[in-house]
Design goal:
The protein is mainly α. Helices cover 65% and strands 0% of the residues. It has a domain of 100 residues. Helix 3 packs across helix 4 and helix 4 runs antiparallel to helix 5. The radius of gyration is 33 Å and the shape is extended. The N and C termini lie far apart (89 Å).
């Protein structure tokens, strides 16, 4: 449990750090964590166009069951996010390689080794890649289940067969049959 002294210190500190107060400061603070735009939430007309084209490609000849188009759109969105992550990773690797080549002597052949900054950045991007890949996998599963459901719609239950009034007599097992045969021959 937190002591009264720590709680009071937290309250004093909270009063002092209220964040940005001006419009310019608030706008700047919105950009603090932005390095690659992968977590940005805003309208991107180019991305919307690409997602629309992907949706058309995915949903092209699929059956038009309920929710199939929306599921195809979810697959397209997830694929677009995965492509963006891979594009950022590729750009980072190319930039790192270009920086190494610019700093290396022309006569010294060396195998480029990724910088620690590149490795750190790639590691940070991994969570975005995992999330995009997981969403795509889930969306594909959902789309697949909808396609299967529309290909084999549930049949309506017809009239039930009449129930027998008496249960059928159990059929004799092979042992009973042999036993009966041995008694009748002997």
């Amino acid at each position: 449990m937190t002591s009264d002294r720590a709680v009071e210190a937290n309250r004093r500190n909270a009063k002092a750090s209220t964040g940005p107060r001006t419009a310019a400061g608030k706008e700047q603070s919105r950009q603090n964590a932005r390095k690659h735009g992968l977590s940005a939430s805003g309208a991107d007309l180019e991305a919307d166009g690409e997602i629309g084209r992907l949706t058309e490609l995915i949903a092209g000849d699929l059956p038009t069951g309920p929710g199939v188009r929306e599921a195809a759109h979810a697959v397209a969105v997830a694929q677009h996010h995965l492509r963006r992550v891979l594009a950022v990773k590729t750009a980072l690797m190319r930039a790192d390689l270009a920086a190494q080549q610019a700093g290396a002597e022309a006569a010294s052949p060396h195998v480029p080794i990724p910088s620690s900054d590149l490795l750190r950045d790639l590691e940070r991007l991994e969570r975005y890649e995992r999330r995009a890949s997981s969403r795509r996998k889930s969306a594909v599963r959902h789309l697949t289940s909808l396609i299967a459901a529309s290909a084999h719609p549930p049949t309506s239950p017809g009239p039930h067969p009449p129930r027998p009034e008496e249960p059928a007599a159990p059929s004799p097992t092979s042992q009973e049959t042999r036993h009966d045969a041995s008694q009748s021959s002997g």
